[in-house]
Amino acid sequence: MPSVRAFWINAALLMVKPVLHSICNEKFKQDFPSTELRNSGTDRNTHLEALARSLQGVAPWLELQEDPEAVALAPIARCAIALATDPNSTQYMAFTRGSQVEDAHQRQPLVDAAILAHAMLRAPRQLWGKLERGVKRNVIAALHLTRGIKPYMNNWQLFASIIEAFMYSHGEQVQEDRLLTGLRLHKEWYLGDGWWGDGPEFAHNFYNSYVIQPMLYDILTALHHRQGVESTPQFFIQEGLGELETLVSEGMSRWSSLLESFVHPDGSYPVIGRSVVYRCGAFHVLSLAALKHLLPSHVLPGQARTALTRAINRTLDASVTYDRNGWLTIGLIGSQPHLAQFYSSQGSMYQAAAVFLPLGLAASDPFWTDPQMPTTWEKLWRGEQAAS
Ligand SMILES: *[C@@H]1O[C@H](CO)[C@@H](O)[C@H](O)[C@H]1NC(C)=O
Ligand SMILES: *[C@@H]1O[C@H](CO)[C@@H](O)[C@H](O)[C@H]1NC(C)=O
């Protein structure tokens, strides 16, 4: 019987390999489907969405270089980054503000450039260090272009912040205002019990997991590592970012617990708020906490793996999830295009790859070696003892 880890690797490859190979073969912009139905105006952005979101999920696995599949894929991923950021390439992607009708479509490149920066922060050797010098120059130039796009007053603030955190950690010039505004605002927007508002207001959806907490965590981590040297910068102390770090740590613990307890034995879970078409990407925080060994003590690694495996199995069933050319469809279970927000394209769907972060843990880690364990849902509904 194939191991659970092999099941995860197959699921990850099924999602991201077609995207990375197609870009590297210079066919992606021609072959990737135009947006379905009512989600028009997104075609300019969809390619960078698919690339960036694919990479942010598998980055730790590529960085680990333990599995032959990851060894084979890393150069393809670098090739895709090189072409996507080369203005002379057929695969050059959109990093500037667009001229579509909808303002959100115009500003979308900021989102996906930020997610690309996030991916590169998660694989500093494989997706950054090993890029050729000229490619690095093009990547930095592409990220600079997004400085012309103003983020909305919500989780988008972190898109500007993470790009600057990437610049900071690699010793590039930083726009301090774009770095710090999002962090200052997220100190204000904390609501309690591990929840941030999406902006100043509470929003009942998975954005704490899709974006807010994972970006805060990786931004704050990046600010402690400048050009490979561990230190805490002066502005970190001045801005009281240590307090924000404490809140993020509480939030991730609370959300990991919540997300693990959501998963029904059949892999379904509550469908809450906008962007549920990101499928099991809803579990981003649980996956990140497992990767960083930050799960709360009552969620054992094997329990987290059991819950995540079920959610992956339920939402990425290969027989209904991909179209006949192997691209992710818009939907939660199979193709359900009307579930999507107006700004979502098929490329946006690759946010689901965020669930694959624990593949960055070696096969010898308890996350993989723990036996299958009853999840909190199972224990509680059987009348057994469990913390929640
Ligand atoms: C694009 O091609 C032109 C002409 O070959 C060259 O001068 C320029 O440096 C190239 N730009 C980049 C960013 O590689
Ligand atoms: C996925 O779900 C199917 C159908 O319920 C089940 O037979 C299979 O064992 C599951 N796979 C994993 C890895 O849990």
In short:
InterPro entries: DUF2264_N (IPR049349), UCP014753 (IPR016624). The protein is mainly alpha-helical and 388 residues long.
Q: If you had to describe this structure to a student in words, what would you say it looks like?
A:
- The chain is mainly alpha-helical.
- The protein has one domain (4-380): Glycosyltransferase (Alpha/alpha barrel).
- 53% of the residues lie in helices and 2% in strands.
- The strands form 2 sheets. The protein has a two-stranded antiparallel ribbon with strand order 1-2. A two-stranded antiparallel ribbon has the order 3-4.
- A hairpin with a 2-residue loop joins strand 3 (225-226) and strand 4.
- The chain is globular.
- The mean pLDDT is 96.
- Bound molecules: 2-acetamido-2-deoxy-beta-D-glucopyranose (NAG) (2 copies).
- One 2-acetamido-2-deoxy-beta-D-glucopyranose binds next to loops.
- One 2-acetamido-2-deoxy-beta-D-glucopyranose binds at residues 4, 7, 309, 313.
